[in-house]
Amino acid sequence: MIKPLIAALLIAIGLFFGMRTYFAKPEAIAAESQRKIIVGTESNYPPFEFIKDGTLSGFEIELLETIGKRLGLSIEFRDMAFDNLLFAASSGQIQLIAAALTPTPERARQVLFCEPYLQASKIIALSSAARPLTSLAELKGKTLLMTDGFTSGEEFIKGIEGAVVKKFPTITDGFLALKNGQADALVVSSTAAAPWLAATDAALFYSLVLPATEASAFAVSKLHPELVTIIDQALKAMKDDGSLVELLEKWHITKD
Amino acid sequence: MINFSLIISFMPVLLLALGQTLAVTACSLVVGFSLGTLFGLVQARGPRSLAFAVNVYATLFRGTPMLVQIAFIFFFLPTLGIALSSFSAAALAIGLNSAAYVSQIVRSGVNGVSQEELDAAQVLGFSSLQTALFLVLPQALRNVLPSLTNECITLLKDSSLASTIGVHEVYKESRGLLNQSYDVVTVFFMIAAVYLLLTSIIAGLSHFLEKKLRYQ
Fold it and tell me: Residue A15: its chain B contacts at CB < 8 A?
């Protein structure tokens, strides 16, 4: 019983060190064809990326397809769990992450961030209209829902005394948990809340604007640093000719 | 309560997703059952060093969560220069995991064949290959058929884990429908019904096989 366990452990340790030495020299990966960008995304975040009638759509999807068309690059999307995205980028499975990521110092250790396409999106606390949370002081000691990886929300909640955080993998799970009364409020960016509020009776909910905002940007694998400038230049061109604002408006993403 | 028109409008997508679920299951079934049978035979009858290697394999793959194995194969193998698509990574991971369980099922089946019968085979001049093919395996497979059915059903349900690396199978596509409709009851009823239907078919097939293989 002990012997196979020891052997299994040795193999696991061997793999671990094999992986470490690999990650120490990124050039080991064969250079992908220069004409294609492989993009990782998580399709549970409308209006940024979601599956509609079996196909991937959303603001970031259309934005990248537009950039691809302008630069003559083909864009290939890989849809996976949010938790796997950063790892997929550092292991080279994907070259770019499109998941409305907020740049943070921790994430910047693993990936490179492009210029945010959205600087300051409002963050709100959505509560049921029957038991509304109408001021910041009322959040104290309450149970608050959030999605995994919502760093701006986490940062904000840290400052609230006694708040209990419950996390869900997708935003839809968060809304449904709020609707079922599993918590007092859902902390969410106003952009991500919009599709839900449009789909249900908005009068059932009370939305409190919090003194916090969120930026969103594309992230690039450290194995493909040249993509940062390529994407930044394309974004700047779209900002200058107004097509970025047009696209944001098309998906009902407001700047404030 | 259950919105059937939503399910009907989702049918075209659901059928495609069903194809993916069945394809992942079938591929991992082939990997798992062929490797597992081989490993089981080796562990029961093979040389000690190989039996030990199978034991290590089973320890590794039974002792770690399948979710971890799928992510590991999908993200680690490319670093060794083997780039697998989401589909093949999922089928391989689920198959390798299943092989560990199947090997133990087959091992117990092989050990269940009595020593007297093996002695008789030797007396009759059967080669070891003939003994394995005509004596051991037919008896062993009949004895372990219920356990293999269990494994098959588990495999089908585990294929939903492929959604985490982007295989558009039933669970993944249904989550997409949830994000559009926010109708939890309908969507999860639909997912449960699809899996229940598929596993019932497997159980039915296995029941039929058991009858066929019974002693006359």
Answer: 76
